Backbone:
C-alpha cells in the first residue's frame, strides 16, 4: 500500500495520507483499500440485507405463481401495492445461478455487486451470468 507521509513546517506534526475509497453497500459505508494492498485482517462476510430481502421476495412470488395463488405479475403487484415493473425485475432474480444466490446469502458476493446491478437485465445462461455479474 502506498502512503504519503510528511512533517509540517515546525516538524511537530506528521501527516499521513492513505489512498482509499469509500462506497455504500447495503446501506453501510465500506472502506476499500487500493488494489494490491496487503490485508491486515481477514475480510468478514458482507451480508447485504437488501439483496437477501429481494431474493426472498422473488422466490416467494415465484412460489405463489406456481401454486396459482396469483396468475399474473399484475395480481402480485396489486396485492403487494407495488409497481408491476418492480415485481417483474425482482422475479427475474429467481433465474440467477445457484452459486450466485448462495454467495449472496453467505455474504461472499463481489464487492461491486449491488441490488441495482442485479435489477438490470442479465444473461439467463448461468455460465454467462458468472462472467457478466462478476465484472
Residues:
Amino acid at each position: 500500500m502506498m502512503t504519503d507521509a510528511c512533517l509540517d513546517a515546525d516538524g511537530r506534526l506528521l501527516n499521513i495520507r492513505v489512498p482509499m475509497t469509500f462506497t455504500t453497500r447495503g446501506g453501510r459505508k465500506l472502506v476499500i483499500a487500493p488494489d494490491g494492498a496487503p490485508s491486515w485482517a481477514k475480510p468478514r462476510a458482507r451480508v447485504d440485507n437488501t439483496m437477501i430481502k429481494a431474493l426472498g421476495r422473488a422466490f416467494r412470488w415465484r412460489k405463489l405463481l406456481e401454486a396459482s395463488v396469483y396468475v399474473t405479475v399484475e395480481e402480485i403487484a396489486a396485492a403487494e401495492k407495488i409497481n408491476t415493473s418492480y415485481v417483474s425485475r425482482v422475479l427475474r432474480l429467481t433465474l440467477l445461478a445457484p452459486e450466485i444466490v448462495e454467495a449472496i446469502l453467505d455474504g461472499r458476493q463481489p464487492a461491486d455487486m449491488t441490488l441495482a446491478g442485479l435489477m438490470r437485465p442479465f444473461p439467463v445462461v448461468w455460465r454467462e451470468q458468472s462472467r457478466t455479474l462478476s465484472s
